[in-house]
Structure formats: structure tokens, C-alpha cells
Amino acid sequence: RMKAILIPVKEFREAKKRLAPHFPPADRAALAEAMCEDFFSVVAATRCADRVFVISKEPGALSRARKLGWETIVESYQTSESDSVDAGSRYCAEQGVHALLRLPIDLPLVEPCDIEAVFEKLEAAPSVVLVPSSDGTGTNALLRSPAVLFPSHFGSNSFPRHVAEAEGCGARTRVFRNPRLELDIDELDDLRRLSNRLRSGSATARWLIERDIS
Prior knowledge:
seven-stranded mixed β-sheet, globular, single chain
């Protein structure tokens, strides 16, 4: 009953487009790279998964993953996060993964214990653990067992859609509220809320300091 983490990473230059009114493309790409660096460090410190997979077209993310000894799934193109996650999930299932946790890189407050806690909530298959975004509409963490239990619906109102999918296939469904997992980065106000809460010396904290965001 192999457990794994799947991390989809959008090309840095294509990330965080909702911040485009406030930051030029180079700054947004640098933010995505900083969050990737920080998040990978957190995942590397967890002890809850047998394997970690990164699916991406982004060379920087793929190189960092390989240096950590993780497995990479190289995309030739990216159409949507749901397509990436579902393709990665099928690949993981073929590798024998039974329970698969999808996590995004833009969770700047997450700690290893938060990720481990998601796996602790998992029941016997078929089962699902979902962590909503802070506003209750998005899905910040999604753990499925089996790994390809139902298709992904990331984007607007993904959380109720994922709950409906889980219930529709008769899965044991747990909603796990965790304030660090629930905070992701989409808007300028999200960055401002982080200014005094990030780990000192983290790449994301340096990015904020360099741009005087508080």
C-alpha cells in the first residue's frame, strides 16, 4: 500500500498571473521559483510518503526534484493543472502507488507535520481526504486512495466538485481543516498577510523583503 506525494509545478514564467497588475513577469517568475524552493524543502523533511513525484515542464523544478532524489514526470506541454495531476496520477498508479496526495507549491506556511497529518486522516480505500482553501472554494490538498479514484477539477469552485466526486464514487470522505495548508497565494493581500509569518531566511521571505511588501 504505497503512499506518495504528487507535486504539479507550472512553468515559473506562467505562474501567478493574478498578480500581473502588481508585478512584472520576472518578479512573478522569481516568486514562483522561491515558493518552489521553500515547498520542496518542507516536503523533503516529511516522513509520511514512500515516494515523491514532480510533474512539470519547468526545468528549474525538475532539476531541483532530481537533486532531492525524487521522481520526475516531464511534460512537453501544460494545458491545465487538472490534466497534469490526472496524467501524473495515472503514472503513479502504474508504479504501484495506492494513496496519492496532490499538493501545490504555493503553500508558504505549511510545515512537515501538516502534510503528515493529511495522511493520518486517510481511511481504508476507497477514501479521500480534502483540505479546502481558506475561502472554502478551492482544494489545497487532495489525497485519494486509489490514486485514480476520480478525475480532478482544480480551478474555480474545485472543492465542492471534488466532494461531489468523492461521494459519487462511494468513497469515505474526510474534510481536514488546517490553517497553514489552507493559505495559498493568489492575490496581493495574500502576500501582505504573510509578511510576519514566514520562516526567517526562506526564499519567499527574501522575495517579500526585496519588494518591501508588508
